[in-house]
Amino acid sequence: MPTELSPLTSMGLMTKESPLATKKGSQPLVVGLPKEISNQERRIVLTPEAVGLLSNSGIQVVVESGSGLQAKFKDQDYSDAGAKISYSRSEVLAADVLLKIAPPTLEEIKEMSPGACLISALQLENQTAEFIHALNEKKITAVAFEYLEDKVGGMPVVRAMSEIAGSTVMLIASEYLSSVNEGKGLILGGVTGVPPTQVVIIGAGTVAEYAARTALGLGANIKVFDNHIYKLRRIKQVIGQQIYTSTIDNFTLSQALAEADVVIGALRAEKGKNKIVVTEEMVANMMHGSIIIDVGIDQGGCFETSRMTSHDEPVYRIHDVIHYCVPNIASRVARTASYSLSNIFTPIVLQMADLGGAEEMIFNYKWFLRGVYTYRGSLTHAVLARKFGLNHKELQLLLAARY
Questions:
Q1: Where do the Alanine dehydrogenase/pyridine nucleotide transhydrogenase N-terminal domain residues begin and end (predicted)?
Q2: How far apart are CA 234 and CA 230, in angstroms?
Q3: Alpha helices, H only, 224-278
Q4: Which residues have CB under 8 Å from 379's CB, separation 6+?
Q5: What is the pLDDT, as a whole number, of residue 271?
Q6: Are 244 and 223 in contact (CB under 8 A)?
Q7: What rounded mean pLDDT belongs to the chain?
Q8: Assuming Cys at both sites, which of 48, 65, 124, 342 could form a disulfide with 81, CB separation 3.0 to 4.6 Å?
Q9: Would you state the pLDDT for residue 152?
């Protein structure tokens, strides 16, 4: 078993067994954890400690062999926690509730049970109309975890992964500024007698907050840009320092970019897609060897020169500016990210089992409903419908018709 103390344990949630969780009052709910096969994904949604809690509550968890290895969780860890270890991918994909990080492939959707519930990332920029049709043919209730809300209107998965990404981007920047990686040969921060490195952060949300904390802790100078004044005011308050902030205008941003050693793209997507705020001309005027990290690349990014990369080949150069555009940055620290995700999804699965399934969750909890994009053969997400020119139905109306 892992040596770390799980947050679930420290919060006192690992208590005596609760009554048997059932699916619609009959059979136990079956939760599947398939092995991730795409985008160099190393995270897993549930840790062994979380699986133990679910198992003690009467929920059957089926884990595909090797699912947790890249996050340093062994099959034996899951088996000891009460999970069934399966060597059949088809068996895992046939679960009542499928918990994944990356969206399933078309082949994986074919293996899923009709009417099952899928909880995974949507990764809007990568999706196709065929993906939506495949889910609807199986009448899958699909939930995009990046759209899930909590009871106070926050987005817990986005917040958790943004905290990790924001802390990690500065470590990535430090790697590629070094001479070893043919960067500018700078230390991220500064030393006595040498001017500090210049960091520009575009966006003032959670990623920006944690990136700014890390950069300031290392001794860098930072400039934060966003078009929402309340976000700029908030980031100054939570950091507790008088940092440079500005709204986004081409002249001021261009000047800051021309002097920057590191530029972080951390704008939050609006209406399903990011807006390009940094043109190729701006990139061409940046210093040679500087680095761009586009955290929002999975939703289109905010640099005209951005294109999605992978952990195998994370960077490329345009105008001798290094571009790092990997969509799943949190996967670099898979174990930390897995614990964070597990703390979010364990209570959700427990609630689902208690109510009797995904449909009851949708009906009872608006925060869960907001993540649903296909339901019983219908597309229910307006942004997806516009993107692919498909018809969609309002989920509230579908539920009203049912009840």
A1: 32-165
A2: 6
A3: 229-239, 250-259
A4: 132, 136, 373, 385, 390, 391, 392, 393
A5: 61
A6: yes
A7: 89
A8: 48
A9: 77
